[in-house]
Structures are given as structure tokens and as C-alpha cells.
Amino acid sequence: MGLKCSICQHSRRKEIEKDLVAQKPNFSAIALKYKVDRGALRRHKDKGHISEKIARAAAVKDVAEAKTLRQQVEEVCEEIKTVLTRAKTAKNDELALKALKELRGTIELLLKAQGELPDGNVTVQILVQESNQLTDIFMEALRSEIDPETCRRVISYIERRRTAITATPANPATS
After folding, report:
1. Are 141 and 133 in contact, with CB atoms under 8 Å apart?
2. Which of 86, 91, 110, 145 is deepest in the core (most CB within 10 A)?
3. Which residue has the higher pLDDT, 14 or 71?
4. In terms of Cα–Cα distance, which of 101, 140, 108 is closest to 123?
5. CB under 8 Å to 170, separation ≥6 — which residues?
């Protein structure tokens, strides 16, 4: 018969497990705090001795914190959209481009944090949408700056390129 786990037998087991699950402080600090062996802490955790109730409570806390992160990122997205709207209204293309870039980055961050950014396809789709918006801004500016015939030829070329790009699969290896 093997030795019993010293952490499972410890009078302050619940406190130790809460610290282990939170991973704050590290194993060495927890060992010093409770006057236990660092290896015993690691074995206790690695062998699944942490009580189910404490493990579930930690998982619920992680979910609550993830919601908070999601809410924060969504708030940032709303702020960026406000800036983008103001930039479009003021016909400030430079600011609009910066806002679109920030919005893309923020959405990407949210997707990564949620584990929903699989293989880059989402980023490609966002980039195509952003590119279409930028092209529209560019074409609008172009119409007011050059003669109608040159403008028509440039816009026709851009439309052909846009159609060719959007018709190409985002990830040919998986098609």
C-alpha cells in the first residue's frame, strides 16, 4: 500500500487547494506558506487530488472573467465604431482607415481569447471586408479628383481585381 498524500491529509487542505488552483503565488511560495513540500503540492495537483468543489469554483471564476474580458473588448469595439462613424461623416479617410485597422485587431483579439480563431480564415474574411470598405472610400475620392474616363477605367480595374480576389477561396489547401 502506497503512502497517503500529505496535502490530502493536511489540516489546511482547502486553503492550499484554492491557492493551487489560482496558481497564486507559485508552488514555492505556497509550500513556504503552508510549510509543505513543493513536490507534494505538484503531485497533489498533477494526480487530480484537488477537490471537485474547488476545481468547479475555479472554472466558474474563469468563465466569469472571460465574460468580463468579452464585455471589455465589445465596449472597445463600440468605441472604435463610433470613431469610424465620425471619421466617415467628416470624410477623414486617414482616420477611417486607422479605425478599421483597430476594429479588425480588436475583433481578432476577441476571437483569439475565445478560442474561435481557427486557422486564419476569419482574419482573411475580415481583411476582405475591410479591403472592400477601403476600396469604396478610395473610389469615392477618386471620382472627385480625376477626369471621368480615367476614373471609369480605374474603377473597372479595381472591380475586376475585387471580383477575382473574392472568388478565390480563403484557404485553397482546405478546399
Report:
1. no
2. 110
3. 14
4. 108
5. 121, 124, 125, 128
Q: Is the pLDDT of residue 12 over 90?
A: yes
Distance, in Å, from the CA atom of 99 to the CA atom of 104, rounded to the nearest integer, reads 9
Residue 29 has pLDDT above 50, yes or no: yes
Residue 11: CB atoms within 10 A of its CB come to 8
Query: What is the percentage of the chain residues whose pLDDT exceeds 70?
Result: 62
Give the distance from CA 64 to its chain's centroid. Answer: 16
Q: How far apart are CA 4 and CA 10, in angstroms?
A: 11
Please state the pTM of the whole predicted model: 0.37
Would you give the distance in Å from CA 11 to the centre of its chain? Answer: 41
pLDDT (tens digit per residue) in 98-136: 888 888 788 777 777 666 655 555 455 555 666 667 667
| Side-chain-side CA neighbours of residue 67 (13 Å) | 5
Distance between CA atoms of residues 31 and 92, nearest Å: 59
Listed in sequence order, the DSSP H helices in the chain are 13-22, 27-34, 38-46, 52-89, 93-113, 121-143, 148-167
